[in-house]
Amino acid sequence: xxxxxxxLSGLFACLAAAAAAAERPNIVLILADDLxxxxxxxxxxxxxxxxxxxxxxxxxxxxxxxxxxHPNCSPSRTALMTGRTPTRVGVRNWIPEDxxxxxxxxxxxxxxxxxxxxxxxxxxxxxxxxxAFNKPTQPQPKDHGFDHWFSTxxxxxxxxxxxxxxxxxxxxxxxxxxxxxxxxxDEALRWLKSGRDAAKPFFLYVCFHEPHEPIAADEKYAxxxxxDDPRFSAHHGNITQMDDAAGRLLRGLDEMKLxxxxxxxxxxxxxxxxxxxxxxxxxxxxxxxxTHMEGSLRAPFIIRWxxxxxxxxVSNEIVHEVDTYNTFARIAGAQxxxxxxxxxxxxxxxxxxxxxxxxxxx
Length: 362
What we know:
Elements: H1 2-23, E1 26-32, H2 51-58, E2 61-67, H3 73-82, H4 86-89, H5 110-116, E3 120-126, E4 148-152, E5 167-168, E6 171-172, H6 180-195, E7 202-207, H7 219-222, H8 230-255, E8 262-268, H9 294-297, E9 298-304, E10 313-315, E11 319-320, H10 323-332, H11 348-351
Parallel strand pairs: 1-7, 1-8, 2-10, 2-11, 3-4, 3-7
Antiparallel strand pairs: 2-9, 4-5, 5-6, 8-9
Helix pairs in contact: 6-8
């Protein structure tokens, strides 16, 4: 009788754990590269078409005072992954190929945090958190918590068209056919459909190369922006190309019946490029990336979680991209490390509409 009681107790504990896991949402974090605050139609752009991200904003919460972790790429991504300001972590500038600078193995990324909490994890797209990419001398995406990775060290090369520098789980993937944004989403969808453990919730980190130069846009997007200067058409078309790929990913979630229990975040790593002849827009803010002005740090931020985050809401409360670390941890039932300073704050109650105030101002 006692053995039966213990067996039933164990069964109920397993069922309770399974039920708790089922309630935890999947998390999709989509990151654009050098997309300015004013480069999306839903953030004020009048000359760029971004219908899919506009729809995502209408279905969720649009934050108009979100700040990136740094004015350029690698430090900003470091902050996003670790919940810590990049100076704490030792990543102080963008990381050239073969640089000794890298995200240390001792850092606990959000991917590792969620994996330890029972999530399946995938990275698809730009990595840019080490110089010795796909080499044994520095940690790779798998060492930072990603079960599956399809990544580039920095930019898609030779450009967004037919990139040839992707690595899949440590093996060179060879030349890819198509444009980078769609290549990245193709891999993410393959993993969602057949590469993950479907019994687990998942964390999917999708990092577009667009609209970072060297830009290449499919003609069907470029011709939406007729101009005497083809560089203008390519730049604006590149943003619409990224938007279209994001739309394919969102439709894929719908088709797999994953929409209702999936939290989706879209943001950018820093302000827009200033050296490309037709640079992006900082909206009404001064500055571009690599500066310390508002336009280099203020990032578009959209978050959707159906039936949990009120749809169509817009807030000017101040949040920071490092806050995703603590917020994802709470939502996923993961424990934020106690042995190091964490600069992010939990914004769950604010995002769910339980509070009108950001934790950064409370």
